[in-house]
Write a structure and sequence with these properties.
- The protein is of the alpha/beta class.
- It has one domain: Alpha-Beta Barrel (TIM Barrel).
- Helices cover about 40% and strands about 15% of the residues.
- Strands 1-7-8-9-10-11-12 form a 7-stranded parallel β-sheet.
- Strand 3 and strand 4 form a beta hairpin.
């Protein structure tokens, strides 16, 4: 069975030869795992872990002073005008926002006059050939990241100010969300067209949850964010492409909304966040959603033993994947304080499940 077939069966809630598997890690952990396994090539590592999905993103051809891709992945000024600076902790370097280009605006007119990026800054003409190379030996599930209508606005505005906008001047908040969604939708549609129908899964996202609950009230989200997030889900669902949405934290009050918006896959199922117990979510939503993630990255992977990880993978594959509707994956990018043995236990157990 091909990787693509496994993912498609999961979307139909059908059992395959095994559950589909995915992988995400910080650059530091990713490089360390390759050294630990004596693997040099990224693709060889993904095959060793049994990863069934492959992400494609095209090529940035915009102004040379702009960071290629989203600034969260690299320091500098990104295509939205957000400036990111590296911050180092004991284990890794993360990029944090140093400048919000819309922090000063007081009118919708200023939002619309901001120098928004051009879709022409992104080149997808070679995407079909790239996908053909990825699928040369077997077909994988090809995914493309769209963007989001909540995180991008607060990156540009500043989180406290954007949250206040939602109450004090929602016209400004909606103008930013609308413009961001418009850009991301147009960019994704161009990528899909130039990929010649070879993109299988489109995912959007933006963290709207914290450890204890939502970052904003469900009603505010529904009123001012949901319409634009819907554009980044329903557009592609109606085109026959599978959809995934990413949000860390506790988002239980709006999961029903996400289903109604056309969502197929919920990522990442952060199990230690309030209300996000995978078994409970499966009972409530498992006939309508596929779950992606769920292997605890806050405590289990960095602090448990390989045996603890193996037991949890078995538990979740049985609980979430009994009908096939589960993609095995950590609940976030694997952090560099995680033991290699624990991650190997995760993937070897998932491969054998």
């Amino acid at each position: 069975m091909t990787a693509y077939e496994r993912v498609m069966k999961a979307l139909r809630h059908e059992r395959a030869d095994r559950l589909p598997i995915d992988y995400a890690a910080t650059p530091e952990f990713h490089a360390g795992l390759k050294r630990h396994l004596a693997i040099e090539d990224d693709e060889d590592l993904r095959r060793r872990l049994g990863c069934d999905l492959r992400l494609v993103s095209g090529r940035f051809v915009g102004p040379s002073h702009i960071v290629p891709g989203a600034g969260v992945g690299a320091p500098g000024r990104d295509f939205l005008g957000v400036v990111w600076k590296p911050v180092r902790n004991a284990f890794a370097t993360y990029n944090e926002i140093a400048f919000h280009p819309l922090a000063h605006v007081t009118t919708v007119k200023e939002v619309l006059e901001h120098p928004w990026p051009s879709v022409d800054w992104f080149d997808y003409t070679s995407l079909a050939d790239e996908i053909d190379r990825i699928n040369r030996n077997q077909r994988y599930c090809i995914e493309f990241f769209v963007g989001g209508a909540f995180e991008t606005p607060w990156y540009m505005r500043g989180l406290p100010r954007f949250l206040m906008d939602l109450v004090e001047c929602p016209d400004i908040a909606e103008a930013i969300s609308s413009r961001a969604a418009e850009f991301y939708k147009e960019r994704a549609l161009r990528a899909i067209e130039q990929a010649k129908g070879k993109i299988d899964l489109v995912y959007s996202g933006g963290d709207i949850g914290t450890q204890r609950g939502m970052m904003l009230s469900p009603d505010l989200w529904r009123r001012h964010i949901k319409p634009y997030s819907t554009e980044l889900i329903r557009t592609f669902k109606d085109a026959g492409i599978a959809t995934m949405y990413h949000s860390c934290g506790s988002i239980v009050p709006v999961i029903e909304d996400l289903v109604e918006m056309g969502l197929d896959i919920l990522d990442p199922v952060q199990p230690r966040a309030k209300g996000m117990d995978p078994v409970g979510l499966k009972a409530r939503f498992g006939d309508r959603l596929v779950f992606h993630g769920g292997i605890d990255e806050q405590h289990l992977l960095p602090h448990g033993s390989a045996e603890d990880v193996e037991r949890e993978v078995v538990r979740l594959t049985e609980a979430l994947g009994s009908d096939g509707g589960y993609i095995v994956c950590p609940a976030h990018a694997i952090q560099p304080d995680t033991a290699f043995a624990n991650v190997i236990a995760l993937y070897d157990t998932a491969l054998a499940a």
